[in-house]
Design brief:
It contains three helices and eleven strands; from the N terminus they run H-H-E-E-E-E-E-E-E-E-E-H-E-E. It is of the alpha+beta class. The strands form two sheets. Strands 3, 5, 6, 9, 10 and 11 form a six-stranded mixed sheet that branches.
Length: 214
C-alpha cells in the first residue's frame, strides 16, 4: 500500500477501535478494514472532483463577466453619413429618403473623394467594407478607406484607378465592429429592402453615381 493508503488503514483501525471493535485482526477484520480504506479513497476522490468542477465553473463565470459583459455593454457606434465629391464639386450628401435625387455625374478622369463621417468624434474600433452595384449585380469593391483619429474614413483617387468605367454605379459601404462581418448576400438583401442597418449593428450607406466622358 502507498503512504496514503497506510494512513487510511490506521485511520480506519482507530475509528473501529473507537466504535468498540476489539476483535482480533483476523480475515474478517482485515476485510472490514480494506472496505473502510476503499470507501475513504472513493470519498476523497469525489471531493477532489467536486472541487475541480467548482473551480472550472467559477472560472467560466469569471470569463463571462469579463468578456460577456464587455460585449453586452459596448457603446453603440455613432451614426455615419456618406459624402461623395469629384474634384471641387459635391456629388452627394445625406438627404431624407423620400427626397428624389438626380444621379450625380463624375467625369472618368476626375478625382473621386469619398468621406464616411461619424455624427460625433469617435475612437471606437470600426471596420468598413466597400461594395459596387452595377445594375442588379453587387460585388465587393477592393478599396480601403483610411481612418482618421476622429473616426472619419477617407477614400480619394482617380475614378479610373478605382476600377470605375463609363456607366452608372452605386457606391455601397457598411460600417461596424469587425467580429462578425456581413455576407455579400446580406448586404444585397438589405439594399433591396432599403434598410439602413444589418444584423450585428452594421450601418449601411450607399450613393448612386454616373461616370461619364469629359
Amino acid at each position: 500500500m502507498t503512504d496514503l493508503d497506510n494512513k487510511r488503514f490506521y485511520a480506519a483501525l482507530t475509528a473501529m477501535e473507537q466504535e468498540g471493535d476489539e476483535e482480533p485482526l483476523d480475515a474478517a477484520l482485515e476485510e472490514r478494514l480494506v472496505r473502510r480504506v476503499l470507501a475513504e479513497r472513493r470519498r476523497e476522490t469525489m471531493l477532489r472532483r467536486t472541487f475541480v468542477a467548482a473551480g472550472v465553473m467559477a472560472m467560466a463565470a469569471a470569463l463571462f463577466l469579463v468578456f460577456g459583459l464587455k460585449w453586452q455593454t459596448a457603446p453603440a457606434l455613432p451614426l455615419y453619413a456618406l459624402y461623395v465629391s469629384g474634384d471641387d464639386k459635391m456629388l452627394g450628401s445625406p438627404v431624407p429618403q423620400e427626397v428624389k435625387q438626380e444621379v450625380p455625374q463624375l467625369a472618368l478622369d476626375s478625382m473621386l473623394r469619398v468621406e464616411l463621417r461619424p455624427a460625433d468624434k469617435t475612437t471606437e474600433e470600426t471596420t468598413t467594407l466597400a461594395f459596387l452595384r452595377a445594375g442588379d449585380t453587387l460585388k465587393p469593391w477592393p478599396v480601403h478607406p483610411e481612418r482618421t483619429p476622429s473616426g472619419v474614413f477617407l477614400l480619394q483617387a482617380p475614378a479610373q484607378e478605382l476600377g470605375l468605367e463609363l456607366g452608372q454605379y452605386e457606391l455601397v459601404f457598411v460600417l461596424g465592429r469587425a467580429r462578425s462581418q456581413p455576407r455579400l448576400a446580406d448586404v444585397d438583401e438589405a439594399l433591396r429592402r432599403k434598410a439602413k442597418t444589418l444584423a450585428g449593428g452594421w450601418q449601411l450607406l450607399h450613393q448612386p453615381i454616373q461616370i461619364v466622358a469629359r
